[in-house]
Specification:
Blueprint (H helix, E strand, L loop, with lengths): L1 H16 L1 H30 L10 E6 L9 H10 L3 E14 L6 E8 L3 H5 L5 E2 L14 E4 L1 H8 L9 E4 L2 E8 L16 E4 L15 E6 L5 H18 L1 H4 L4 E5 H6 L3 H32 L1 H9 L4 H37 L15 H26 L4 H6 L9 H36 L10 E7 L11 H13 L4 E7 L10 E3 L1 E2 L12 E7 L3 H5 L3 E4 L13 E5 H7 L9 E5 L5 E10 L14 E5 H4 L7 E8 L3 H15 L4 E7 H8 L1 H35 L1 H9 L4 H29 L1 H4 L11 H27 L3 H7 L1
Parallel strand pairs: 3-8, 5-7, 15-20, 17-19
Antiparallel strand pairs: 1-9, 1-10, 2-3, 2-9, 4-7, 5-8, 6-7, 11-21, 11-22, 12-21, 13-15, 14-18, 16-19, 17-20, 18-19
Length: about 800
Amino acid sequence: MGNWLRDVRFALRLMRREPRFTVLAIVALALGIGASTAVFTVIDGVLLRPLSYKDANRLVVALQGAGGSAPVSPADFLDYRRDARSLDRLSAAQAWSVTLGGGERPVRLAGLRVSGDLFDLLGVPPALGRTLTNADAQPGHDHVVVISDNLWRTRFAADRAVVGRTVPIDGEPYVVAGIMPPGFRFAPFWVTQAELWAPLTLADRADDRAGQSLRLFGRLKDGVSTAQAQAEMSAICARLAHDYPATNANTRITVTPLLDKVVAGIRPTLALLVALVACVLLIACANVANALLARASGRRREIAVRLAMGASPADIVRQLLTESALLAALGAIAGLACAAWGVHALIAALPPGGLPRQHDVGFNARVFLVASFATIVSGVATGLAPALQVFRNSAARGLENGSRGATEARGGLRTRHLLVAAQVALALVLLADAGLLARTMGRLNAVDPGFRIDHLAVATVSLDGTPYASAAARPAMFDRVQARLAAMPFATAVGAINHLPLAGDAWNLNYWPDDRPTPSPQERPTALYRVVRPGYFAAMGLPIVAGRDIASTDAASSLPVVVINAAMAERQWPGRSAVGRRIHLPGPSNVPTALTVVGIAANARQTDWTSPPEDEVYVAFAQRSSEFGLSSLTFVIRTSGDPAEVAASIPREVGLVDRGIVVSANTTMEGIVADELWRQRLTGELAGAFAGIALGLAVIGIYAVVAGAVARRTREFGVRLALGATPGALERLAVAAIFGPICWGAALGLAATAAGAGLMRTMVYDVSVLDPYAIGSAVLLLLAAAVAAAWLPARRASRLDPTLALRNE
């Protein structure tokens, strides 16, 4: 312990004597350790930390479709629950958007209707009151609700007496049964902002196999694997397809562990960030190791004297490792501060619910353990190279070569060049990946959504809980709302739709053209179902390429009409005009209705920014207002002013019509598109930041190597200048010494970029993972920066006065 304390005191004296070196080393390690700790903090919260439910590793989700993303019908759910033996229980949940009254102003909230045993399945007790039971799901007993801790505190001022109190939801009385504890969230991958849960009653839909609206959640029995549950559910699904071919012929069910379902979309992004931040940490370690190696080379005489006076090589190694460990510890302290700031900034930059489990991201013991491990590895890695040099030099050789004019030992120089090559290779990988992501963002920004996103304010207006929620009263009230919004300053066009592109839900209905034989239900094509009011196409800037759009004359008593998109027109009537033809669409009771095509709209991005256009139908609200519960519409306002200011004023304007009408999600279309692309944008920004850090560290490392080499060759340069060498020749000589490692590093970086192309495949759009422009630009930038870093100290050395250089020797 006494020896170690003496080593620490000596290391601190060295750090005070060389403050510039100390600061640069600590900053480099802080960047590497801080970046890796920040990324691991996110990974720990999203991927590694168990979900906050009982035995969360046994929870599964069952959904339809090949990718396991489509909901299940009520009748199918009841069959699965009755026949599944591999699951302890199977529960269902359905999205539920509600208007909560009782306060100064009603509010629109996201909620879920769930099976009565869902909370027992999750195993999370309430903080107050009780959760739901199967008895609550019986008809006549279903008007109870469980609320979140956040809703309890923000809406009810954390009043414990709210349990048992009646609150108005959608204009009907609900009794608050209980309050969930802080941090409880369900479901973690869908309707993540749910604030209240009510019983799911299926008595009137027990035979419905067409309305697919339920997500299923189950718990595996002890000893049962996900694969066994999948096999059993697939067998049940096959039996249902045999028994009900009209609705279940093509049905597939997928059983997925709940955590895998939650993180499936973000896993590739996090894997890429891990690879990038590992490169940053390695570059930081190589940079500091190179600097310590250079300092150890300048301390050869000191080390030789120590060895000659009886110090053992182990004593010298301990001293050098203590110095590097102390630098790593100080770098870790600064790095943790950087990581805390970085994680806070990252979470603040995310849209609400954008990152799965983003509320679980935070520092804990595991994060500090990993940071400590990174610190130890950094300390050993940076101190190992100079320590190894001790064993390559005897005391006599150190004294012999310790004069000021001696050149660096060949082994030490080779090690430093290898470290430079490693930094260049890793920096090139980061620059190339950042270039690919920048190219991807450029391509994404160039995507034509089909409509104009600029100067467009949007807001959802709900009549639920008001006297105007009935089918008979909706049209007149929405007319008044639209007229009020159209009278706003700077408003140039106003329309409304049931679900906004990119931000709203996506309803799919079967259809078939009237001029074809009626296909069987499983053979009918599907189309996105949109209900619009007059003015929608003009407000969205969505062109009508043939025919006309929905007009105010398309009333309930007039001929049923429909506008379809160009993709649907081309698929169904290639090379022919679709205007004037008829299609059949089901109504609320599944009774087909014939509609006449009066117009063709341009294709628009609807459910995803990068997906090809799907078949899409736009029907008139006035003709379908009584169908599918259309008591909420999203209004779109084209404005000549600032759309953000217009969006902010929409609640006030609607309140002038009726204060009981709820306005929510008022924002701009540009903000919606930004939220749609947040993952690609943020990944690109992080990759760019990491690449910038890597390039800076690599440049500093190259500069330090060349500067050290030039300082050791001062006498040589003086002699060359005295014998007639030109400054340019000396500059080329100094740069040439490091140019080889730079080129070798670039070659290794290109190979590593090609080897890691698979990791980038899911991250790019409309760009090759080996895009020559991105990779070529990265190579040119890196080589230019590296040569400049090498040329600067070489240029300074070439301007030396040879007489002064020789006299100093």
